[in-house]
Specification:
By secondary structure, the chain is of the alpha+beta class. The protein has one domain: Fe-S cluster assembly (FSCA) (GMP Synthetase, Chain A, domain 3), CATH 3.30.300. It contains 2 helices and 3 strands.
């Protein structure tokens, strides 16, 4: 499952990089994906929305086994 998640994150990355940010996969465990937002995404007031409405939504569509995505 980790490989699938990384593959999806690679599709999302260019959009984040356009705004000076990035996402790093930390762990996939029992349907929970832990990521670290870096660059401009780290500390951005919109990072929660990016995480939940962007990254989590796309990951759940592409990898149905995903239950949630959390930032660490």
């Amino acid at each position: 499952m980790r490989d699938k998640v990384e593959e999806v994150l690679n599709k999302i990355r260019p959009q984040l990089m356009k705004d000076g940010g990035d996402v790093e996969l930390v762990e996939v465990n029992d349907g929970t994906v832990k990521v670290k937002l870096t660059g401009a995404c780290a500390g951005c007031p919109m990072s929660t929305m990016t995480l939940k409405m962007g990254i989590e939504k796309i990951l759940k569509q592409e990898v149905p086994e995903i239950k949630e995505v959390v930032a660490v």
